[in-house]
């Protein structure tokens, strides 16, 4: 059985995130496997998998910044806002100028309110939106605040009556790239959807660290839990007495390292816990000692 840590998978197209988890359970030889944020089946790229104790990290890692490479097709709308859905409308995009594309992208950059796609995992009255949408129900989803830190246009490629826009998006957790494609097309009056999506980074974990499922089946490369935490969060080294306290779930005085998760390491370099600082106190949110 594999030890505790993270496996950075380069997810193949047409696999669900659950498919990857199921495969990694067999490869790692344990049921305690989870992921830090789903990728749609169409998407490829970085899927962070936690094994054993590292599954407790996943909810915190899911909140980190993400980077995507995307292709948006202007001139065609679908019911899923991506290429897997059914076409719902078309409009010639030949008149859309590069200046208009850049203006539309600029309006979708920064802190914005975004309505998730109809076919999404958002829960509405206790049921996933995609289940209700696929049952033919029109789901009313509420706009949510998200942050698009960067929306860089790499290329604008006209082709027939459509225009393809290649872009790199850096964004907060909870941002739907499909919704950006939909909203860019809507702003330009021609509709739009996502035809390609590749996640290249989750927090500090870059696609250069990722292995394909086939590579992992040959050699299961695990980033040890201590290294994973040190890469993702501020680090705090503590004394033996402080290590004893936090290892039993006790609180420590704050060290002024911010409000987000902080990795606490003992004198021997072993990861003890994740803590958060509030009001002068560092409170454990996940304990790994023992």
UniProtKB/TrEMBL annotation:
A Pfam family the protein falls into: TruB_C_2
Originating species: Nonomuraea cypriaca
Catalytic activity field: uridine(55) in tRNA = pseudouridine(55) in tRNA
Function: Responsible for synthesis of pseudouridine from uracil-55 in the psi GC loop of transfer RNAs.
Sequence ranges assigned to domain tRNA pseudouridine synthase II TruB subfamily 2 C-terminal in this UniProt record: 233-288
Catalytic activity, EC: 5.4.99.25
GO MF term set: RNA binding; tRNA pseudouridine(55) synthase activity
Record-stated family: Belongs to the pseudouridine synthase TruB family. Type 1 subfamily.
Domain tRNA pseudouridylate synthase B C-terminal, first and last residues per copy: 178-221
NCBIfam families, per the entry: TruB
Coiled-coil residues: none
Domain Pseudouridine synthase II N-terminal as annotated: residue spans: 25-177
Keyword Kinase: no
The keyword Cytoplasm is annotated on this UniProt entry: no
GO BP annotations, alphabetical order: mRNA pseudouridine synthesis; tRNA pseudouridine synthesis
Annotated catalytic residues: 40 (nucleophile)
Protein name: tRNA pseudouridine synthase B
InterPro entries to which the protein is assigned, alphabetical: PsdUridine_synth_cat_dom_sf, PsdUridine_synth_N, PUA-like_sf, PUA_sf, tRNA_psdUridine_synth_fam2_C, tRNA_psdUridine_synth_TruB, TruB_C
Keywords noted in UniProt: Isomerase, tRNA processing
Matching CDD domains: PseudoU_synth_EcTruB (cd02573)
């Amino acid at each position: 059985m594999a030890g505790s840590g993270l496996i950075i998978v380069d997810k193949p197209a047409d696999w669900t995130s659950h498919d990857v988890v199921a495969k990694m359970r067999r490869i790692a030889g344990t049921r305690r496997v989870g992921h830090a944020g789903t990728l749609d089946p169409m998407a490829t790229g970085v899927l962070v998998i936690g094994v054993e104790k590292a599954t407790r990290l996943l909810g915190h890692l899911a909140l980190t910044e993400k980077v995507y490479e995307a292709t948006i097709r202007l001139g065609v709308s679908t019911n899923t806002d991506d290429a897997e859905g059914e076409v719902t409308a078309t409009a010639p995009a030949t008149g859309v100028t590069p200046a208009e594309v850049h203006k539309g992208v600029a309006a979708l950059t920064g802190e914005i309110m975004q309505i998730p796609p109809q076919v999404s995992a958002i829960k509405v009255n206790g049921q996933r939106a995609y289940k209700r949408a696929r049952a033919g129900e029109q789901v009313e989803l509420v706009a949510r605040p998200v942050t698009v830190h960067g929306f860089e246009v790499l290329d604008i490629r006209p082709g027939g009556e459509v225009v393809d826009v290649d872009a790199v998006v850096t964004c907060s957790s909870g941002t739907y790239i499909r919704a950006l494609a939909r909203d860019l097309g809507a702003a330009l009056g021609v509709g739009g959807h996502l035809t390609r999506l590749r996640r290249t980074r989750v927090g500090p974990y870059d696609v250069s660290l990722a292995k394909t499922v086939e590579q992992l089946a040959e050699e299961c490369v695990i980033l040890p839990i201590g290294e994973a935490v040190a890469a993702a969060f501020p680090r705090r080294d503590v004394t033996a007495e402080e290590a004893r306290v936090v290892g039993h779930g006790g609180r420590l005085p704050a060290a002024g390292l911010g409000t987000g998760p902080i990795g606490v390491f003992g004198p021997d370099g072993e990861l003890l816990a994740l803590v958060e600082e509030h009001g002068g106190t560092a409170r454990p949110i996940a304990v790994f000692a023992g």
